[in-house]
Amino acid sequence: MKSITKIQTAALGLAVLLALTACGGTATTGTQGTDIPKTQNTRDISEGVQPDAAAVALLPKAIKDKGELTVAMDLSSPPMTFLAEDNTTPIGVNPDLARLVAKKLGLKLTFQNTAFDTIIPGIDGGRYDFTATTMAATEQRLKVLDMINYLKGGSAVAVPHGNPLKLTNDTLCGKNIAVAKGSTQQLNHLPNVSKWTCEEKGQPAINAVTLPTIQEALTQLDSKRVDGVFYDASALAWANDQHPNHFTVLEPRMDTRTNTTVAMALKKGSPLTPALQAAIQSVLESPEYKKSLDYWGLGESAITEAAIR
């Protein structure tokens, strides 16, 4: 997440910023049943998980001999992928699932924290074996990557706590809905949703209020200067979890008429692809998969098939 300057003095904005960036402090090993703050909990969900023999049998000899995998992640987007308060330990949904995949393959796992836009060149250049960083399959990416589904993403709308205007996903016409500058919601989803939900039905368009960051959008929502915030469902769920009684996240998620499934990715045609697919499928069928999603407030994101895109 980008840092903010204008609103760092706003109490809620600063609180949300701290929750989203998760910097400073001391991490603690815990379990999913503890009261340890999630930003401090460095428990390894894969502890005790045994290798999947069928997946291990598909491993290329070179990787089996090496005994480890390197996974690239942009560790800046809670609750999906970020650093614990020790500023060292990767935590979140993606680190959980990457650890489980490695355990299913009987391999050690090395994390590489890297900017999102450098991940694909790094995979192509052989610096990383795969990535698990909430990457959606696109036509351009599929030209250079094998992508294996592991999670359902999506967008949602947050409204002030208690939803005083009684809004739904279908009653946003004419409302002031904040979006973060450069986000998928600002560039694609909100204009499309406004078109088919409102404008094509003769109703006023949704008024997009473009703000520099999601932190500023949530601050303006809390002070009721906007009617809602349209953003990634996972980030809104995280903000709501970290700051209860400030927001209400509308359910179900917004239908954007797009494929919202996200995928782990590796170099196109990689000999590792069959083994990785088998390991991901084994994870999807494991109790740890649901435990991780539920812990991070994303139970709705579960899928059942690790399909190759």
Q: Can you walk me through this structure?
A:
- There is one protein chain.
- By secondary structure, the chain is of the alpha/beta class.
- It folds into two domains: 25-153 and 260-301, Periplasmic binding protein-like II (D-Maltodextrin-Binding Protein, domain 2, 3-Layer(aba) Sandwich), CATH 3.40.190; 155-249, Periplasmic binding protein-like II (D-Maltodextrin-Binding Protein, domain 2).
- Helices cover 33% and strands 20% of the residues.
- The chain contains eleven helices and twelve strands.
- It has helices spanning 11-21, 53-57, 61-66, 93-104, 116-124, 139-142, 184-197, 214-222, 233-242, 273-284, 287-295, and strands at 68-73, 82-83, 90-91, 108-113, 130-136, 145-152, 155-160, 176-180, 207-211, 228-232, 247-249, 261-267.
- The strands form three sheets. A five-stranded mixed β-sheet has the order 4-1-5-12-6, sandwiched between helices. It has a five-stranded mixed β-sheet with strand order 9-8-10-7-11, sandwiched between helices. A two-stranded antiparallel ribbon has the order 2-3.
- A hairpin with a 6-residue loop joins strand 2 (82-83) and strand 3.
- The two termini are 28 Å apart.
How are the secondary structure elements laid out?
Layout: H1 11-21, H2 53-57, H3 61-66, E1 68-73, E2 82-83, E3 90-91, H4 93-104, E4 108-113, H5 116-124, E5 130-136, H6 139-142, E6 145-152, E7 155-160, E8 176-180, H7 184-197, E9 207-211, H8 214-222, E10 228-232, H9 233-242, E11 247-249, E12 261-267, H10 273-284, H11 287-295
Helix pairs in contact: 1-8, 4-10, 4-11
